[in-house]
Design goal:
The complex is a heterodimer of chains A (249) and B (293). Chain A is α+β, with helices and mostly antiparallel strands and 249 residues long. Chain A contains five helices and 15 strands. Chain A starts with a strand and ends with a helix. Chain B has six helices and 14 strands. In chain B, helix 2 crosses helix 3. The longest helix of chain B is centred in the C-terminal third of the chain and has 33 residues. Chain B starts with 8 loop residues before the first helix and ends in a 6-residue tail after the last helix. Classes of the chains: A alpha+beta (249), B alpha+beta (293). Chain A: Pfam families: KH_6 (PF15985), Rrp40_N (PF18311), RRP40_S1 (PF21262).
């Protein structure tokens, strides 16, 4: 299990007693940490230091305002325009657009590919991201050829903006225990009265909520944004869900 | 100039469809404003208005200058608006966008042309010396409804502002510093406020107040009413957009009057609180001879 330590600031070297050791696995550094040979490990961002002694890894949980694409991230992109070979998509406003090839969809050939118009939302994975090139996206798994839920977003619903840290906590496998975010389960469970909706969470800070009923979309969207804005714990999220279900008709 | 960030097709469709059920994204009523906050700075004439996530700062200043030759008995009053890149990267300094031009025109007609500030009182020596009052409006954050927020900021800043006191004796003008004599408020006649309505639907049937940025991108028409709390209309601006039924516009006007009265009360209250905060103890406190221990 990962252990949480204190908050660190960029540039201050980490106390050697906090660095985990393991007889077999080498030490792995995650986002936010940089190794300065021979021994120093220095954080490059401000955030909370997390270590996982079982896998012998350490990283920093931080909340920044600008999304920097990294490989294998699931993002909610918006199509800007189409060129002959690929779509240009925006991951966050006023940054360099990402390219999404026309054929990077499930079972797509030149004749059967999906025709997407500017402004369409797409759930994609980042296939290539480094600081020298524009990022590239894909809507299909590279080896199996299956979509796994990726592709253009259809159906009634709306997209909402959340902070990057909150999006990361929503995307965790065990978001309730590790991330402290249980609001989506509460909305679909008894506190929310069993609302029926689906979500697509993008690591770039955008969440799409889809449902037949517009009221459900508004409740879920506001619940997410208020939890993020106020930094609510599980108890606070429960109260928020009950209040929203009561208020919005 | 970087292009403005457009909302996605899904969002636009959803907002229009939800409005057909009279449902807004933030759960407000159709004629409900976001929480309006008004704060004053330490210096006289600085007012900051927050309307949800929209933030506007207005600053009023005055300096001595020569009046215009064709109007020797009037002072000079100008309002300048600036949409800074702080609000959005699509705004550039010194390159006015359509939003900025429309905003400054509406403020001009509402505050300047309606005679809210008595320019004759700004004249000191006819044809030679007068006050030039200038209000700078800075938009710090843009989440819709800049007009209403900017108008409240301008009116509040002008009512909060204090200009140096002057006197004329035998044709000689003396301008007193704040240490010599307390600065005096401007000669203010009435407080006009703007109320902007946005129309949605094919025939403009759904009308709502205080649109957020997303709702502004989706709307098919808009109409701004400027009036004061006595119901005197300064201007009505409907610049194109979908044709709206005349009876509906009259209803919008009467609801606007209620809102303007609420906004007017809020501004009066904040000004009174600020006056009380600055005037600790009042006259008797200045006359006390006790030392602070």
């Amino acid at each position: 299990m990962a252990t949480k330590h204190h908050v660190v600031l960029p540039g201050e070297p980490i106390d050697p007693s906090l660095i985990p050791t393991h007889p077999k696995h080498p030490l792995r550094l995650g986002p936010g940490l940089r190794h300065i040979p021979p021994e120093d490990i220095v954080p490059t961002v401000a955030g909370q230091l997390i270590t996982n002694p079982a896998k012998n890894s350490m990283w920093i949980e931080y909340n920044s305002n600008r999304y920097i694409p990294s490989q294998n991230d699931l993002v909610l992109a918006q199509i800007l325009r189409s060129t002959s070979d690929f779509y240009l998509c925006s991951l966050s406003p006023h940054t360099a657009p990402a390219t999404l090839p026309h054929l990077a969809f499930e079972a797509a050939t030149k004749k059967t590919r999906p025709q997407l118009s500017p402004g369409q939302l797409v759930y994609a994975r980042v296939s290539l991201a480094n600081k020298h090139m524009d990022p590239e996206l894909e809507c299909v798994h590279p080896s199996t050829g299956k979509a796994d839920g990726l592709g253009p977003i259809t159906g009634p619903g709306c997209a909402f903006d959340v902070s990057l840290g909150f999006a990361r906590r929503l995307l965790m496998a065990r978001s309730r225990e590790e991330g402290g975010v249980g609001v989506l389960e509460m909305l679909g469970g008894e506190e929310g009265g069993g609302l029926a909706f689906e979500t697509a969470v993008g690591r770039n800070g955008r969440v799409w909520v889809g449902s037949e009923s517009a009221r459900t979309v508004v409740i879920v969207g506001r619940a997410l944004q208020e939890t993020d804005r106020l930094g609510l714990g599980l108890e606070g999220q429960r109260k928020l869900v009950k209040r929203l279900v009561r208020e919005i008709k | 100039m970087p292009r403005d960030h457009e909302p996605s097709l899904n969002e636009k469709q959803f907002v229009t469809q939800a409005l057909q059920e009279n449902l807004r994204l933030d759960g407000r009523e159709l004629d409900q404003y976001r929480p309006l906050e008004l704060r004053f700075g330490d210096q006289h004439g600085v007012a900051e208005v927050t309307l949800g996530k929209t933030k506007v700062l207005a600053r009023a200043t005055a300096e001595l200058t020569v009046p215009y030759p064709d109007r020797p008995l009037d002072g000079i009053f100008t309002i300048s608006t600036e949409l800074s890149p702080m609000a959005s990267p699509s705004f550039e300094v010194n390159r006015p966008t359509e939003t900025e031009i429309l905003l400054s025109r509406l403020l001009e007609k509402t505050v300047r042309r309606s005679g809210a500030l008595d320019t004759e009182s700004l004249c000191l020596v006819a044809g030679k010396q007068c006050w030039s009052v200038r209000v700078d409006v800075h938009v710090l954050s843009h989440d819709g409804n800049l007009t209403d927020a900017a108008c409240v900021a301008v009116v509040a800043a002008l009512r909060h502002f204090r200009r140096p006191d002057t006197s004329i004796a035998q044709g000689v003008l003396t301008v007193y510093t704040p240490a010599e004599r307390e600065p005096v408020p401007l000669s203010w006649l009435h407080s006009p406020f703007c109320v902007t309505w946005s129309f949605f639907g094919e025939e403009g049937t759904t009308a709502l107040l205080d649109a957020t940025w997303l709702e502004e991108q989706v709307r098919v028409g808009s109409c701004t009413f400027s009036m004061n709390q006595h119901g005197e209309i300064c201007q009505i601006a409907k610049l194109g957009g979908v044709p709206v039924d005349a009876v509906a516009l009259l209803q919008c006007a009467s609801v606007s009057l209620t809102r303007v009265k609420e906004i007017s009360d809020l501004v009066d209250r904040r000004l009174a609180e600020d006056l009380k905060r600055r005037d600790k103890g009042g006259f008797m406190a200045e006359l006390r001879a006790e030392n602070d221990r």
